[in-house]
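Q&A FORM
Asked by: J.P.
Topic: structure of Purine ribonucleoside efflux pump NepI

PROVIDED:
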Amino acid sequence: MTTSSDPLDQPASGRGAVLSMSLCVAMLIASEFMPVSLLTPIADSLNASDGQTGQAVSISGFFAVAASLLVSTAAGRLNRKSVLLTMTGLMLLSLVMIAAAPNFIVLMIARALLGISIGGFWSLSTAVIMRLVPADRVSGSLALMFAGQATAAAFAAPVGSYLGEVIGWRGVFWALVPIVALDLLWQAVALPSLPAQESQSLGSMWRVLRRPYVSRALIAVLFTFSGAFAMFTYLRPFLETVSGVGVQMLSVMLLVLGCAGFIGTFLGGRLTNGHLMALLRYLPLAMAAATLALLGFGHVLSLVAILLAVWGAINTALPISWMGWVTQEVGDAPEAAGGLMVGAIQLAILLGATIGGALLDHVGISATFICSAILLGVAGAIVGSGRALRA
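REPLIED BY: S.T.
REPLY: Here is the structure written out as tokens.
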């Protein structure tokens, strides 16, 4: 008897649960990185510099790191469905606070709450997927969940940039509120009861972290995602100052980058099982090359569009590949490994946004992009042949 690897070829209850998580992922990604497409107007409205406003991305990353390491531990024996619903509720509260923020301090507090939601949801998501679907459908279901990320990457930035001119940046965040509220209700209905299988502790995370191949992988993750977000967080200033685009062309460029994410999601889901180590090594190297090429040809809009498409496809394939690594190499401790992986990714986002913002404010956009490429190159070197990342 054969079984289908299609993640949609499963009972309706399982499919609905995975799809509700996919929508939540889309909203998390849209909420986390919307400031990238609205960086300039948010900065002007709150009397802050572009570099300071970029820290709204890094503050959410800081709290996401803490939540990814602590939520599964703090949840103890709590039902994982309740924990996921709480994380989605925090995202809803955060969006309301951001939309109504009277000053930069309130914005940062709201972003901190969003970070807790991001870290808590992501740290449990891979382990939950492994419980929702049969083992042979985990990779496909992960890709389906990450399709939410690709959707957000495709439409959140360009739509946010365009709508920001029409209804203002606050209106953009208000528009996300009812979508998240509906998803919260959907999760409440679609997710089955998920009793804790075992009580997690910081000790269990430490035992996983002490595995040499795990610690090496997390170092590679730090360099990979810090390199990616040192560039991505400040893409709008680059396109405005180097490429000289206006708001309409900016939206088009961001749409090109985002739509290419669907290609990355498809390829990541297809290739992770058979070519995992090649993806982990060569994707950051290709991203570094695309970043440097943007610096060299940033004034040629046709080439910029092509390079952004390449960058966008890689950007969505990377997290699928690394979560695939968790299921393949640390499948005996998915919650602990998932928390460590999400913590490393969020810490990398924090570091990338912080370093990139400092370079942008004090040196210039070229320094930001060069730093991004260097970090990505180091990531590829750490992965190497991939043998050191295997159990």
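FOLLOW-UP: Residues 239 and 245 are 6 Å apart (CA to CA).
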